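anyone seen this seq b4? input:
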Amino acid sequence: MRISLLEFATRGLWEALTFVISVLSFCRIKIGGNKLKFIILTVFFAVMVFLIRLLPISFGVHTMLILVVLDIIIMMSYKVKIEDLIKNTVIVSCMLFLSEALNALVLTFTHGKKLDVIINDPIKKIYYFTPSIIMFMACNFIIYMIFYKKRNVKDNTQEGGDDTKNIGEIG
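predicted toks r here
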């Protein structure tokens, strides 16, 4: 499914930002001192998503390519174990798919056959699918707070340390 530049600027960047923050958070990597590196990674990922979605391949294939690209970018940038990265990328992807499916289900019940018109109009699509991004952000925040924040979330600057990494301190 192709996206317009308007969708990229209004939805794509927010979705990429949330996706990257969630994967890094679930991998217990704190976004610290090197924010420029994080911003560049997020924008690069968003651009890659845009370009991959322009390829003439089926939807599932470019979804897999997008996830592989994200894993490679994060692995190279932040030295995360590939096993943790793949697991957390799959978790975050499932949450994104569920939030979009729930939003589409609500739109189907409220707009019926007009859903095709919404999906084919970039402005309407941005407006009507913004709740899925909000749900995606909220779900990631809640899951992070429940499952990850309570487990070993110490700062690396404390004595003893743990497996939590601070992005600003990584090479």
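Residues 5-153 form one domain. Residues 153-171 have pLDDT under 50 and may be disordered. kinda curious what u guys think
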